[in-house]
Amino acid sequence: MVQLIKNYDQTRNSRHQAQLKSDMQSIENTLNDHEYHLKSHELSKTAHTSKQVDHGGFSVSSVLEGLKNRIRNLILNTDGTNVKEVVDSRVTADGEVFPLLKERLDTEYGKLLQKIKRNVNVDDFGADPTGIKDSTEAFQKAIGTGKVRLNLSAGTYIVKGVKLPSWTYMVGQGIGVTTLKLHEDTPASEWVVTNADHVKGNRNIVVEGMSLNWNPDRQGGVSATGGIHSSCLTFANVTFGIAREVEGINPGLHCFDASAPSYNIADVDYTKSGCRYIWFDRCAGSGYGDDGVTTHYSEYIFITQCVMTNPSGKAHPVGKANSNGVEVDDGSKNVWIIDCYTSGNVRGVEVKAHPEWPAPSNVHITGCESFRDVRAFDLRHIGHHLANEPWSETARDVTLVNCTAREPVFNDLCVGLDPRALVVSAYQHVMISNFRAIGDPTYNYKGTTIIAFQYKSRKINVNGLQMHGFAKAGTDIHVIGGDQRTDDVHISNFAIHDSAKVGISLGGGVYYVNLMNGITHTKGGIAGVTAPNNQANIVSVRAVGYTDAAVIAGERYPFVPNNIKGGFRAASSSGSPLSDTSAIIGSTGGGKAKGDANVLIGTRGGSTTEGSRSVVMGSNNSHVKGKDLVSAMVLGSVNVINDKSYTTVWGFGSEPSTANKRVEVNAEAGSVRGTGAIQSVSDLKDLAEYFESKDGNKIESGYLVTLDGDKIRKAQTGEKVLGVISETAGVIMGGAAFYWNDRYLRNEFGGLIYETMIKDGREYKIPKENPDYDPKIEYTPREDRDEWHVVGLVGQVFVRIDETVKTGDHIVPNDGIGTKSDKGTGLYVMRIHKDFNKDQGYGVAKVFIHPGI
Prior knowledge:
Elements: H1 13-43, E1 54-55, E2 58-59, H2 60-76, H3 83-88, H4 101-115, E3 118-121, E4 130-134, H5 136-143, E5 148-151, E6 155-159, E7 162-164, E8 168-171, E9 178-182, E10 193-195, E11 202-213, E12 233-236, E13 238-249, E14 256-259, E15 276-281, E16 284-286, E17 293-295, E18 299-304, E19 307-309, E20 324-328, E21 333-338, E22 341-343, E23 347-353, E24 361-366, E25 369-371, E26 375-381, E27 396-401, E28 404-406, E29 420-425, E30 428-438, E31 449-454, E32 458-468, E33 475-479, E34 487-497, E35 502-506, E36 513-531, E37 537-552, E38 555-557, E39 576-577, E40 583-585, E41 592-593, E42 599-601, E43 608-609, E44 615-617, E45 623-624, E46 633-635, E47 638-642, E48 647-657, E49 661-666, E50 671-674, E51 686-692, E52 704-708, E53 711-714, E54 723-725, E55 729-733, E56 754-759, E57 762-767, E58 788-801, E59 810-814, E60 817-820, E61 827-837, E62 842-849
Parallel strand pairs: 3-5, 4-6, 5-8, 6-9, 7-10, 8-11, 9-11, 10-12, 11-13, 12-14, 13-15, 13-16, 14-17, 15-18, 16-19, 17-20, 18-21, 19-22, 20-23, 21-24, 22-25, 23-26, 24-27, 25-28, 26-29, 27-30, 28-30, 29-31, 30-32, 31-33, 32-34, 33-35, 34-36, 35-36, 36-37, 39-41, 40-42, 41-43, 42-44, 44-46, ...
Antiparallel strand pairs: 1-2, 37-38, 48-49, 49-50, 51-58, 52-53, 52-54, 54-58, 56-57, 58-62, 59-60, 59-61, 61-62
């Protein structure tokens, strides 16, 4: 500071000059100093902080911070749901339309500043910042009817409650610097600060930069009286209210509350008397008897960067508190909770409703962290959980993004409540993205579940989940079944590391769960994934460090099987693919695909496969057996066992057996075998049967043959023709392809003789085996032996003929070759297929053969 000489000494000229010179020098030095600092200021990169520069009633810092958070909120909330009300909320009562809801709030804040007609300090009206005198009357005088900026000094003001009318901006010097404390004589029902008219409502109120001490020790100790009373700051029926950088201390009920005048609202339009457009920003709270921040029957609520810790829980019976850091309660809608921190609470962030009231909806929780709360994040609608309770019609649409649950613990505030990182009950349409749960590996979680989806919750999508450190918990994630089971739960892109004994557990009766792209890991765990049935879709899940990677439907797996229902493993209600390259499709009955590249398709009755590349398809209780088998199949069969590589079989029987095969296709031999009738649908024309030659030699195709006893030879002139040696048979009988023809004993009419056997307490009949049958003797099928011939008996056949035969003739045999019948009897020649060749000694005719020739 420059101090000049004001009165010069006029008696001596030399002294006058010296004083004048001294003053001029001081002025010059000061001007030079100012010029130096001004230039330094101009050149400095940090001349002013963004907080020191005004921009339309806001600091540059607040504008930039607002823009940053708006962009972040825009990115994080691009799911497209519930936009109609948000669009509508951008229109003011005056019909003004804003591009963004945040811009409307800012405009309303600007209107508040413009409405302010007085800028006063409460001390000028007799308020005492020393905390000695009661300042209630001074506040009333200073506030008047509103339209005032009320400035508070540093210090403590003793009041009996401050009531703020519309268009009031009350600002202190900061948290812990300016404090409002309730007077000793203040009733227990009072607030430290609230709006003046709860019934008609108020608007445009700002409280900023102070601490609010409810002083529960007054009168020897007081507690909450119920309802919306006994809080530090309550907005009731307020439109456009802001509490910024305000601290709530030891309220009987809540630190901060945005509410309707009553908690008991039965009206269909349950938010009509609640608050709208409320912003709790950078607020802190502790010692609250119930919740730190809460909202009831209100909408468009913004709770940002708030810190709520260590409640007293005194609004509840001892050991039964539900004191939460941030609570979105009955009837609230369109709530944003952003970048908040909670610690020491029963529940860090809770979205809940009581049985008789609607549940909060369209709630967005972003960037919040819970530290050592009992339950970090809890969504529930009480009274709508159990099987005999009604479904909630309002518990809908909650989003959690980038939230962290750190070290949930037991707490004496609520004795017996298990610590959990996340709980969803009764809510539907829940989106959880990038959720992190961090446990203390040394803490005794007493075998509890850390994340629970339960109590009739539905349509829960979890994408991007990180968990670790819950070494002494029982289960990391439990999708709870039973009569009040949850369902439609989708968990993807998850990593569970060094955590509970069981990674993910699915309950009974839960049918629609998807687990995709994740890993569960621990040391000495029990199972990575457990489920009592095969209903869950599981894709690309890995489990490490467990006795069993998965225990599903009673089967233990060394890996977590890819399990897809409704289109792959597909459309199957049961069954166990026990190899990582096996599959079960469209099957029931507990089948098992035991080998690599094995498949059960459309099976029932516990069908199984072994070996490699084995298939059972469209069959009941049929099996491929043999660990060394390759490419064996059973198709369209009942109780058939295939034990031969490179074969496909069909069959039918009463108990599983290889003898129940009826048809076999041998890919290696290129042969087809069958035990029953075959109907040809090609141009093969005749019905044939195997007959043995009289001399044991081979008879060539096309010769007419006759019976000699029960054997055949070439037919001679005048002999009755049995048939023709055929290569065109559509049906061939008597092949005995699979076993010795006399393997089973028969009665005098050729029927099988059966015997009764009892196995596993069950009585059934089987063909009686011939005592002469030796299964150790290798059997050669008839088609592989020269003495056995396929004789066409009925139908169109090719016959050797001589030069006398023409189309339309009848033929009779001559040493096995057909010749023209002079009597017009015999086989009818349909056409000449090949003319007579003298060198070959025969031609070929297409002839119709029938019985009785």
